[in-house]
Amino acid sequence: MKFKQIVDLSLPLNNDLPIFPGDPEPNMRSATTIKKDGYNTSFLDIGSHTGTHVDAPYHFRDEGETIDRLPLDNFMGEGVIIPATHKKGGEPVTMDDAAPYFDKLGPGKVALFHTGWTKYLGEERYFNHPYVDIEVIAKMLDLGVRTFFIDALNIDQPNGGEFPAHEAITVVNGIIGENFTNFDQITFENPLIIALPLKISNGDGSPVRAIAIKLY
C-alpha cells in the first residue's frame, strides 16, 4: 500500500498544552541525559486526556468499554469533514450546518468537526470554543456513525456543566476525539483517518498520534 499524502492531525505533546479544567497538568521532564547517564529518557507525567486524545466509553460510564478492550477499527475509518469555521465561541454546530453531509455518513465513517479553533491555541479564547449540538450527534448515531473527532477542547459546551454528546456517544460504546488539528490540510476526498490509542489497561482514554492519509 502506498500513501500519496499524510496529514498530521495531532498537537505537539508538551507542558504548554491547554487542558480541560480539573484535568492533570502535564509535567514532562528529563529523567536521564547523555552527558550524565549515557542516554536520554524522560518522565511523561500527563493525564489520559492530554493533548490530542480519544475518550473511551468508560470515561463517562462505569459499564462502558475501556480503551484497551475496544476494537482498533473504532479508531480509524473514512473521514467526513463537517465545516464549522464560521462558528464563534460558544456557538453550536447545528443540524443546518451538518445536514448537507449526512448522505456521506454511515457505519465505519469518522465525523470530523472542523471549527479551526486551534488557531487560538495558547490563548484564553481556546477554552471558549464551538461545540456540537446534541441533535446533530443523535442524527449521526442513527446513521451508524460511532467515531466523532473535533478540533477543539471539548465536543460539548465550553462551560463544562453538561455533557450530552459524551453521554449519547458513550452509551453506544462510541469514540470521541478532541484537541485535533490541521483539518484544513485535508484537501483530498475520502481521507483515511487513523487515531490509535495507547493500550492502557482499564483506561478511560489516551493521547493519540492522529493522521489523515490520501491513498493512491
UniProtKB/TrEMBL annotation:
One of the record's GO molecular function terms: arylformamidase activity
Entry-linked InterPro entries: KFase/CYL, KFase_sf
Superkingdom of source: Bacteria
Record protein name field: Cyclase family protein
Annotated Gene3D superfamilies: Putative cyclase (3.50.30.50)
One GO term (biological process): L-tryptophan catabolic process to kynurenine
Phylogenetic classification of the source organism: Bacteria, Bacillati, Bacillota, Bacilli, Bacillales
SUPFAM superfamilies: Putative cyclase (SSF102198)
Residue ranges of coiled coil: none
One Pfam family in the UniProt entry: Cyclase
